[in-house]
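lol forgot to send this yesterday, sorry. struct tokens for the thing we talked abt
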């Protein structure tokens, strides 16, 4: 009997599949995707049929949606969100509100932002909640693209797709409507049937056009999806090692493409293009995405982390042109400029970064160093003018930076005076200031005094990696190469925090120079390669010359030449073998 029941079920499903396939001509490539689309759409039809005859009320839908939204986002208050999240959510409401006013159903539409870069998606909940991910917004160039996305999600709500999905889950899970708050959110993130997605595309584009946006915004959004789709396929195909891997990959790719999202971008583009032609919609200029600066800043930060300094500078400058009041973007710009030895520009940017936050000691140090690297003769005067312009409390490290810059300009008296004061002060910051003063002595060419002060500071701050590496540099210039190699390894690396990688690179370079001067060229070049790989600035002669001693600059140049010669010889050998 069980076998007959199973056979009957299979036959019914097969008949339903045939009926559905005849009703909708699905244009799909010859692949497992066609079958999986068919099965999935058939299941969608069979589970949706009862829902069509017992649609929930708007009030019930709004209640369920509100409860789901609370479960998803919690009770996060605006005061708990950062400035960028609030700015984006206000913008989403500004764009989404007029779109929603053109929808057929009058629901309390609300728009939410998920500030996660991997969230390249948008979805809707029953009753009017629309969510947009940070990764999706980062793909956009215009407000018209955003309008197309918001319109699409509004239409999922307006045409009861979200409500029907909730009722499907109710039937499948056999729970009362009041228990639907237990539905996982990914049920709504995953997308709908192909027909429903295309319907939301059509009506969402229509909403956008009725609100004054260009239909081309939808096309450009789908083109961005298509580029992602092609990148996804290339990445996945590159991973396949065997025919079996390729089969599994195709299946996974098909499931990902269908159950998580929508029809192929090419089909969606074709539908909108057909609508533009049939409706006679004329081209409209697209509007700028008003929050694009947030994502340009994020890209600039990523480029800086990847040591693509020119790209980071360009992206940060573009972001600041759109929204000048961005300390994060200003700091990225300053660091990118400094890394490219654009010292005068970096100094000007650091002034803006610091602004009223003169208590930020590392930023004040960076400003002083940028001024010194740009022009040692004028740096002290410029720094003094900047300090005088600071309103309220002055930077606590201003005195040591001022003394150091004066030392570089040929006036050692302030440094000697400050040194004596620090030894007697009992200030808890005294070891740090003594170490900083020691580094200014190093830049001024007094390597013995620098080594003494940095050694004293390192003894009082034994875990401070920065102190030990700086002392290693001074030992190199007083020709204590073995000591320098050992000193560079001292300190507790966990204390370096976010600067650990930079200090690792600097340690490798200090050891490279020490080994090079000790005539151990093989080890020197290995360390030099390691330093260059992690911090390309070491290959910039102007950068090295401005920030380190003449011996270091000379060593770096010689190692560069040696590397280039060895690479030339290697290529010559390879060419000879062929």
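and heres what i got for the seq, position by position
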């Amino acid at each position: 009997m069980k076998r007959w029941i199973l056979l009957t079920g299979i036959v019914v499903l097969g008949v339903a599949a045939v009926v559905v396939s005849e009703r909708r001509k699905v244009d799909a490539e010859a692949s497992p995707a066609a079958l999986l689309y068919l099965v999935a759409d058939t299941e969608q039809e069979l589970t949706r049929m009862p829902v069509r005859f017992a649609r929930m009320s708007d009030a019930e839908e709004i209640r369920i949606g509100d409860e789901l939204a609370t479960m998803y986002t919690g009770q996060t208050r605006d005061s708990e969100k950062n400035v960028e999240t609030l700015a984006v959510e206000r913008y989403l409401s500004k764009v989404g509100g007029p779109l929603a006013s053109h929808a057929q159903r009058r629901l309390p539409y609300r728009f939410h932002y998920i500030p996660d870069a991997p969230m390249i998606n948008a979805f809707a909940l029953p009753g009017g909640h629309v969510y947009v991910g940070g990764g999706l917004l980062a793909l956009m160039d215009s407000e018209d693209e955003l309008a197309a996305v918001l319109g699409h999600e509004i239409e999922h709500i307006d045409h009861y797709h979200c409500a029907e999905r909730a009722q499907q889950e109710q039937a499948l899970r056999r729970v009362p409507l009041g228990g639907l708050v237990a539905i996982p959110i990914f049920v709504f993130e995953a997308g709908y049937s192909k027909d429903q997605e295309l319907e939301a595309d059509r009506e969402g584009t229509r909403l956008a056009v009725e609100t004054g946006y260009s239909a081309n915004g939808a096309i450009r959004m789908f083109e961005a999806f298509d580029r992602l789709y092609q990148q996804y396929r290339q990445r996945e195909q590159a991973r396949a090692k065997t025919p079996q891997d390729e089969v599994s990959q195709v299946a996974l790719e098909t499931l990902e493409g269908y159950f998580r999202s929508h029809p192929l971008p090419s089909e969606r583009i074709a539908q909108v293009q057909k609508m533009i032609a049939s409706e006679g919609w004329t081209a409209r200029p697209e509007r700028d995405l008003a929050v694009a600066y947030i994502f340009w800043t994020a890209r600039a930060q990523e480029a800086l982390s990847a040591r693509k300094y020119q790209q980071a500078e360009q992206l940060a400058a573009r972001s600041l042109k759109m929204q000048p009041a961005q300390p994060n973007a200003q700091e990225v710009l300053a660091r990118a400029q400094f890394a490219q030895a654009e010292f005068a520009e970096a100094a000007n940017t650091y002034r803006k970064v610091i602004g009223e936050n003169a208590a930020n000691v590392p930023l004040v140090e960076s400003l002083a160093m940028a001024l010194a690297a740009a022009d040692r003769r004028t740096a002290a005067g410029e720094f003094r003018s900047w300090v005088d312009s600071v309103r309220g409390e002055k930077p606590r490290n201003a005195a040591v930076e001022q003394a150091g810059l004066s030392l570089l300009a040929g006036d050692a008296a302030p440094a000697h005076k400050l040194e004596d004061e620090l030894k007697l002060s009992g200030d808890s910051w005294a070891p740090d200031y003594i170490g900083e003063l020691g580094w200014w002595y190093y830049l001024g060419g007094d390597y013995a005094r620098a080594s003494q002060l940095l050694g004293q500071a390192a003894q009082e701050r034994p875990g401070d990696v920065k102190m030990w590496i700086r002392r290693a540099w001074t030992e190199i210039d007083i020709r204590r190469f073995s000591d320098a190699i050992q000193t560079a390894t001292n300190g507790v690396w966990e204390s370096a925090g976010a600067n650990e990688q930079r200090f690792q690179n600097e340690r490798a370079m200090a050891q490279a120079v020490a080994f090079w001067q000790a005539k151990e060229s093989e080890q020197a070049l290995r360390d030099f390669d390691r330093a260059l790989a992690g911090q390309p600035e070491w290959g910039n002669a102007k950068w090295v010359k401005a920030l380190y001693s003449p011996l270091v600059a000379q060593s770096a140049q010689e190692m560069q030449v040696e590397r280039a010669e060895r690479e030339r010889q290697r290529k010559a050998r390879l060419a000879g073998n062929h």
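The first helix runs from residue 2 to 23. anyway ping me if u want another try
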